[in-house]
Design a protein that fits this description.
CATH class of the largest domain: Mainly Alpha
CATH superfamily of the largest domain: Tetracycline Repressor, domain 2
Number of strands: 0
Largest sheet: none
Length: 209
Amino acid sequence: MRKKAKREDIRDLILDAVNKLLAKFGYKKMTVEDVAREVGIGKGTIYLHFPSKQELALAHIDRVVDRVLVDLREKAGAPAPADTRIRRMLVSRVLMRFDSVVDYSHNLSDLLSSVRAALLARRKAYFEKEAALFEGVLREGARDGVLDCIDPRTASFVLIEATNSLLPFTLSAQELGRREEVEAQAGRVADLLVKGLLACPSRPVSWTR
């Protein structure tokens, strides 16, 4: 039974429908009419919020990233040592994206190939926001003597880049694997990265810039 869009969260209802239809049909077969029908509104209402089908798909991805940022912000502010928080954040940024496309199957490749150019233009902004959260934890860890990080800003982007290869928006659907495999691989990468940041007891901790 389709939802009736009579609430203020019409934008989220539209994006919920986009997520469902992308998983079911893929980007090329999904139409704006399909989205309107799924939500229970007129096609014109869709265009009041999103100017095109491509913007619907990109807004869906934006929402996934926004949820990742909320989660990273919570983990960054958690009462735990800096190295523990960094590890949790690294694994989470991979798994949350994996979970967002777990039902897409072969339709993930269809989506990515269709919006690739526009998505690449957005990725820099995505990663800069994530890196800022990592940078804050790195600076705190260096001040506390837990981490040896002379340049937290650069290090934060290294952390992002090192785990980007595990993201579903980088891999094909066939390369995604099972969730437990992705989690284990993300954990191994995170462990190596965090180990390289830990302060060595035999030498003084470098002060951050």
